[in-house]
Queue: 2 jobs
Job 1
Amino acid sequence: MQYRFTLVFIYLLSTICHAGFFAFIGTGYDNVKEKLKLTQVSNSESYSGLSTLVGFGFMLQPSEAFSMPVSVEVAYSTAKSSILSSLNNENKLNSVGAIIVRPTLNAGWLGGYALIGIGQINFTQIYNSADVSSEIKKNVNNPVLGAGIRLKLDKDIDAYAELQTSKVSLLDIYGLNTNSNASEKGAMKLDQGRYLVGVRYFL
């Protein structure tokens, strides 16, 4: 029953608001600032890498001047974490996925938008270390904010460029410092910026 209601709701939106589905792919540059804080010492590192982003979504367009794409996206980043590397050989920081809304103001073939959403970072590598324990989940939700511009290339194709930022903190983690007592409590903070360019294809 709920499934049928969802289909009817999407159909009504598509007829009233000129909505439609789209798929997209993008590539970007990640810049991550990482901070590890233990009881008596703190350490900060910065690292960068390339990322690939893919996803699909649903766009509402109540008027020519305003549209609102809603998308589910998954990213893979080549950025390496020195802190995770100190725990084991698996030092990649992978973004599991995100749900993002992009309210867009359009002026002909050009548009500008803000983006807001919720993402998820995979910290499985931390928990692969036998000495590390925490009540924090392996997949941690984090807010995603940013802004971007879109360029309409064709009836069914848009190009876009955007900046995504996110911050996440892991608290009360034990065993992060492999050179000291495993019972020492630590905290890990990440500040991530992602610069993206890509294309959207409307189905």
Job 2
Amino acid sequence: MKKIYPSLLLCGLLLTSSCLTALSVDDVFAMLEENQQSIETIRLVSQTKMTMSMGGSPPQPAMNQKMSMVFKKPNKVRMTTVVEAMGAPPQETVYAFDGKQAVHKGSDGTVQPVPVDEQVARLPMDSWKIPEELKSKCKIVSRDGDLVTLAVDGFFGEGVRGMENMPFKKTIVQVDMKKGVLTGMDVYDAAGTKMMTTTMTYEAKTSVWIPERIEMTMDMEQGGMSMKMAMEMVFSEVEVNGKIADSEFRLD
């Protein structure tokens, strides 16, 4: 059963009114968290395709990735990933965390223990969740029906692996309050130039909204050379809140 936040009662009333000032940032994030808290287990497959262009050259395939993931609250996760990158042969790896020990199986079949990585043991849709310390840097800038737009003084995906050194200084985020999900995100540098755009679409699974497709484009300079990247991630074979045995999270 979904947890009810006192502020959500007010939030529900506000969705039928034009009183923007009464809706707080905490109300917005409570609604986002409420959708995710309904998920006890999830099984899915994601297919990611990425193209890249450097120095104005035509876009070239950079990566194809297929990932099968199983997740069980509070933190059990298993991910099997097959990656084809830059023309190299496919590489399959497995990461598993049973709540106590994390292990990694390389493409050569070798299984090794690894430090527990809490970032990995998150739901896919939770990897863009704003850190608590950034909530104070958020403000609501507009509202159109169920769609609320937030401005964040910083990067909304702060802490996401691979994004640590990106020059992102401001994020504009769109939130669908009725579904309790993010629908779009634009990221800017210190000069106010848009560097990255992300759009997300969802489907309902047992009253929970699950990502169906995520599309991202990036346009920036790196080492004095322009770089453009486009990525599409499509989710399929999604099962929510089904029975998943603990044995699935062990690599024997």
